[in-house]
Write a structure and sequence with these properties.
alpha/beta; six-stranded parallel beta sheet; four-stranded antiparallel beta sheet; globular
């Protein structure tokens, strides 16, 4: 098994050099073939996903799988449509490979170009979410990166069907090198991938907090990812209430298993009495379990709260349950929300920076000075202003798709598209220039003059 994994990684490494130089037209042709192949084979893919779901249902019943993981595993018609449209959108994007980032004239006839190029081999390790395969494969193909996929066993049928169909479509384009995309399936392959720093240049884990942390702690390979999605909504005293109700609801219930759904609602104490009763009732009508801090608990109690239960109030009342200290640091990935009353935007910002995961947070406000303060001081990859946190997504950000969401502060941050799969190289173009002419007592001076000249390569 180890030898097979290394052989596949070696093939991907060799193919990555060739893939980095494939013409844009060939990559786009392969991408459109991938999208067409998905549509043509939808029934095959859905049947494979059905087999995964049947096995997962038993695991869910025996509490060996969470509801959030099961939801991520399921390929709905809308998810399938997004997979196809995402690939076609990537085909429309500008090819970043070979793009001139900067150019500097060192001397007459001696120009230094900084050129965008692929990272090389990307290792993608993910739980559930079979839609990761087309998303990441399309972005890696367009950006010229070879890729090794390792999905969770819970999605083995879906992953295999998607991978085989997509690779078969890619292989119809002769310019795309064989072996550029690999699929690992055994549990042992994960441990092997983590040791493959001679072959794999970047690892992208997609999964739970514990899963991502394990990957980060057990490899020498650079890792791009986020450890959790503890996101917040802050409702200011100046908030438009109807906007706040709608945004806070969407940010929680549109897809509660997503890493960009909110886990904590922070409400300014000057508006809490007016805002919370209606907001809490709306949440509970949509099946959201609420966990209150002391102040919000008192407000809920005064407005018809019912002590003790967690399954909804009596006669429309708000069910009361107190939050614990652990709740502020918990990613529920479920229809559960913690509620806290704060005295100011400054207190909200302090709470977010202390308990959040630097992922995505939103302010509901009409006070521009307060909005600017929040946007500037909240240390998160995405900050929303009067808009749902669910917008923090590569497809919605116009990247075609995403390879993941990063809370790192180096290389790439937030929803990561092709820009997170690129690095650069320097190309110095001269005509017999020698360093000795620029050293010593009679050294020629460097011009170091910026130029808009682009480095052009033949395709």
């Amino acid at each position: 098994m180890e030898n097979q994994m290394r052989e596949n990684a070696s093939k991907a490494k060799a193919a990555s050099v060739l893939l980095a130089n494939v013409p844009t037209a060939s990559k786009d042709k392969a991408l459109l073939a991938m999208a067409d192949a998905l549509e043509k084979n939808k029934s095959v893919i859905m049947q494979a996903n059905k087999k995964d779901l049947e096995e997962a249902a038993a695991m869910l019943e025996n509490k060996k799988m969470t509801t959030a993981l099961y939801d991520r595993l399921k390929l709905s018609d809308s998810k399938f449509k997004d997979m196809v449209s995402g690939i076609r959108d990537v085909a429309k994007l500008e090819d970043p490979v070979g793009k001139t980032m900067s150019a500097l004239v060192l001397d007459d006839g001696l120009t230094l170009y900084q050129i965008c190029c692929p990272i090389g081999v990307i290792g993608v390790i993910f739980e559930a979410r079979p839609d990761v395969v087309p998303q990441v494969m399309s972005l890696c193909l367009k950006s010229g990166n070879a890729t090794i996929f390792k999905g969770g066993s819970e999605a083995k049928y879906s992953n295999r069907a998607l991978f085989d169909i997509l690779v078969e479509a890619i292989n119809t384009v002769p310019d795309i090198p064989a072996g550029a995309f690999q699929l690992a399936q055994s549990r042992e392959d994960v441990a092997e991938m983590l040791k493959m720093d001679p072959y794999i240049d970047l690892l992208i884990p997609r999964g739970s907090n514990e899963f991502v942390k394990y990957i980060q702690d057990n490899t020498r390979i650079s890792v791009l990812g986020h450890t959790s999605g503890i996101c917040h909504a802050y409702v200011s005293e100046s908030a438009d209430l109807q906007t706040a109700y709608a945004v806070c609801l969407d940010s929680k219930i549109q897809y509660p298993a997503a890493c960009n759904s909110i886990e904590t609602l922070l409400v300014n104490d000057k508006i809490a009495e007016k805002f919370l009763p209606e907001m809490c009732r709306t949440y509970q009508e949509n099946g959201v379990e609420l966990r209150f801090d002391e102040k919000s608990y008192q407000i809920a109690e005064k407005n018809g709260g019912v002590n003790g239960g967690v399954n909804g109030g009596v006669n429309g009342g708000i069910t009361l349950k107190k939050a614990t200290d652990a709740d502020w640091d918990t990613e529920y990935n479920d229809l559960i929300l913690s509620v806290k009353v704060v005295g100011s935007a400054a207190e909200a910002i302090e709470h977010i920076n202390k308990h959040g995961s630097h992922h995505t947070d939103v302010i509901l406000s009409t006070d521009q000075k307060e909005i600017d303060k929040f946007a500037g001081l909240v240390d998160s990859a995405s900050v929303m202003i009067n808009a749902s946190t669910r917008f923090a997504d590569g497809f919605r950000y116009g990247k075609g798709a995403e390879v993941g969401i990063s809370t790192n502060k180096i290389h790439s941050r937030g929803p990561v598209g092709m820009e997170g799969l690129m690095i650069y190289k320097y190309i110095l173009s001269g005509s017999g220039h020698l360093v000795k002419d620029y050293a010593g007592d009679k050294a020629k001076p460097y011009l170091h003059k910026k130029t808009q000249e682009k480095y052009c390569r033949l395709q």
